[in-house]
Amino acid sequence: MSTESDIAPGRRRPSTNLAHDLVSDLTQQIMRGLLKPGDKLPSESTIVRAHGVSRTVVREAISKLQAAGWVETHHGVGSFVLERQDTHGLRLNVDTALSVRDILELRLGLETQAVALAARRRSAEQLAQMRQALDDYQQLLANNDSCVEADQRFHLLIAEATGNPYFVQILQSLGNALIPRTRVRDAERGDVDLAQLATLANQEHETLYAAIRRQDPDAARAAMWTHLSNSRERFSAG
């Protein structure tokens, strides 16, 4: 995500849809709480200078945010972040409704596309954060500690690197159920060595990371398909 301080005045992004990029930036700031309900968005002129876009692009982006229910505009005053109602958001009853297989099938459709977008759009900072998540994962694994948080963080960072906040929103709605081994009961585990499975998963993560680093969307898509398909085989029966 880019903030006003990250973008030099007059600098334009290499994008064919600057309004879409600006909507993604502002939406992610809202979702992360950097812009809270009731906060006033920066002025049009401030956004123009910070993001290096035209006033037309800013107005188009604000219009899209209004249509999506993120902000409301009071003419002559400015645009303000709206409170999002839970009843309007995506809610998945992962505790009872979705099995490991259900979740992985959902993720196969979602994350194969997300990682291809992430490979094209990721920033150097986002790539560094992914590297840190994998390093943390490996350290936790070596210490025989739970690496679920680092695993989840890596996948959420991929979603964030798409620049599309809805990928993040859907994955966040899964919570810890995003990681299959958090849903495997002791009685179902049998002789399965979860540490060994976590090691195999991390090897697949490294392949994913390498494709994202090379900015190779086809390789990234194939690596995610392999990773999630293997996870489905490792954790799903029948």
Automatic annotation (TrEMBL):
CDD domains for the chain: WHTH_GntR
Keyword flag DNA repair: no
GO molecular function: DNA binding; DNA-binding transcription factor activity
PROSITE patterns: HTH_GNTR
Domain HTH gntR-type: 16-84
Keyword NAD: no
InterPro entries for the chain: GntR_C, TF_FadR/GntR_C, Tscrpt_reg_HTH_GntR, WH-like_DNA-bd_sf, WH_DNA-bd_sf
Keyword entries, A-Z: DNA-binding, Transcription, Transcription regulation
Name this protein carries in UniProt: FadR family transcriptional regulator
